[in-house]
Every structure is written in C-alpha cells, then in structure tokens.
Write a structure and sequence with these properties.
Elements: E1 8-12, H1 17-28, E2 32-37, H2 40-50, E3 58-62, H3 68-82, E4 87-90, H4 105-133, E5 137-142, H5 167-187, E6 192-197, H6 211-217, H7 225-237, E7 242-245, E8 257-260
Parallel strand pairs: 1-2, 1-4, 2-3, 4-5, 5-6, 7-8
Helix pairs in contact: 1-7, 3-4, 4-5
Length: 271
C-alpha cells in the first residue's frame, strides 16, 4: 500500500455504508479521498468523524452520478485541485423491490442511470485522468452477487417488496462493463487495473425506503461494510502485475497475471 500514500481516490456514495467504510479505510492508509455523495448534508456529517483519523486528507463534494454536469464538475475539481484521480471507487447505487411487470419507466431509468451509466461515466473520466498523467491507476466497481445470479425467491410477498426490478440487470451490466474495460485497458497496455467486488447482503441503509425489507434483513446474517473495504485494500495492496478478476477463461490474452476472486467469498450467504 505504500505506493498509494498521498495519491487521490474518488469514492462515490461515500456518506454512509460501504462508501464511508472504504473512505475511512483509504484515509487510514494515507490515501487522499475525494468523497462524493448526492446527500450533501449527510456527507458533511460523516466527514466530521474523519478529521480524527489524521492520515490521508479528505475533500467532500455533492455529486449525483446520474447528472452529467455534477460528474464533470467533480472530475474537474480533482484535476485542478488534487492533481487528478489515481483510484476510482464506484460505490453509489440504488435498489428497487417492485416487480418489473408492475413498475414504470421512471423506476427503470433511475436504476440504470445511477447503477450503470453513472458507473460507466465515472470509469471514463477516471481513466482519462490516469492516462493523461501516465500513472498507475485502479478502478473498483462495487457490484453484487445479484450481478451473477438472480434468486428464485424474494424477501417478501408484500406488493412493492416482492421483486428485484432492474437491480440484477443493472448489476449484470456493471459486471459486463468491468470485463469490457479490463480488456480495453489490456489492449492498450495501460497500467490501470479494474476490480469488481460482488458482496452478498451487507449491513447498510440501502433498503431504508422499505421498512418491510429492512425488518427481514435484520434476521439474516450480513456482512459489515468494513468487510468490503478490506477487499478494496487487499486488491490495492497487490503488486501492479496482479489483476484480480472474478474469472479467467482459457484463451485470455491479457498480459497480466490474474487471480480469481469469487464474489461468494465475501458473502455469508447468497442474496
């Protein structure tokens, strides 16, 4: 981790849960963090605790990853004030438990705009920053086991809580996006790695809009946000020649050595 000390990370969805845990873990390792979230007040409250860490420096900005102007402004700030981005953590995400067949276009667009398009745009901006400065970089996409397999059951039978909507589809999308970008980076021999971490159920407030689901989850063994942060720190700490990927198929021509990371290794049970 020593080579990352003093470098800059952008963490989305940093105001709570996994994003906050990753922010704290990076700061403790001496990494400077630009913490962004759509919830500006909550982000400000969370940041008050980070002052006591005394390691890396932190900066906070309001940013809606589904808003093009917000994202461009955030990366412009990173470029002009922080010398660019070295680590990108795409953590911001939303979930919806209504059925696809009973939902609407507005819900579909929200899930896709935040979970997929927001991630893609942040990857694009981060890679541009890394390539312009010709530096080593690392991108993390916080995915989900639902991005690899769709459960046959739901958390509840109550209407509005008895589906997955486009959440699995969006996470399948970001898994595919990770593989696509990995191959693009290998093709141009860029010193940039990309890692997808797919946890199972994590103790966060992502289900706060659904008290019924929240109640169900309190009775299920869950991961802590810090468990996901540990995975990020582990991947960052590997040598530049090591690319952590979920799978490596025969015939992969990437010049990097791959290490398999099974998403279920981070899950106490499949979601």
């Amino acid at each position: 981790m020593e080579r990352w000390v003093g470098k800059t990370a952008v963490v989305t969805g940093a105001a709570s849960g996994i994003g906050e845990a990753i922010t704290v873990a990076l700061l403790k390792k001496g990494v400077n963090v630009l913490a962004v979230d759509v919830r500006a007040e909550k982000l400000s409250l969370a940041s008050r605790k980070w002052v006591e860490l005394g390691q890396g420096k932190f900066y906070i900005r309001h940013c809606d990853v589904s808003n093009e102007q917000d994202v461009e402004s955030t990366f412009a700030y990173a470029r002009d004030e922080l010398n660019g981005v070295d680590i990108m953590v795409n953590n911001a995400g939303v979930i919806d438990f209504t059925r696809v067949i009973e939902s609407d276009r507005k819900a579909f667009e929200r899930l896709l705009n935040i979970n997929v398009l927001g991630t893609a745009v942040c990857i694009n901006q981060a890679v541009r920053s890394m390539r312009q400065r010709n530096v080593e970089g690392h991108i993390f996409n916080i995915n989900s086991v639902l991005g690899h397999e769709v459960p046959s059951t739901f958390f509840s039978d109550i209407d509005g809580c008895n589906g997955w909507n486009l959440y699995p589809a969006s996470k399948h999308g970001t898994v595919a996006l990770t593989h696509t970008v990995r191959r693009e980076l290998a093709a141009i021999k860029a010193p940039i790695r990309i890692t997808s971490i797919s946890p199972g159920i994590v103790e966060t407030n992502i289900t706060k809009h659904s008290p019924e689901i929240t109640e169900v989850l309190t009775k299920i063994p869950r991961l802590k946000p810090e468990d996901i942060a540990d995975a990020v720190i582990y991947a960052l700490g590997t040598r530049p020649e090591v690319q952590i990927a979920r799978e490596l198929k025969e015939g992969d021509q990437s010049s990097r050595r791959h290490e398999e990371m099974n998403p279920r290794a981070f899950s106490s049970r499949d979601a």
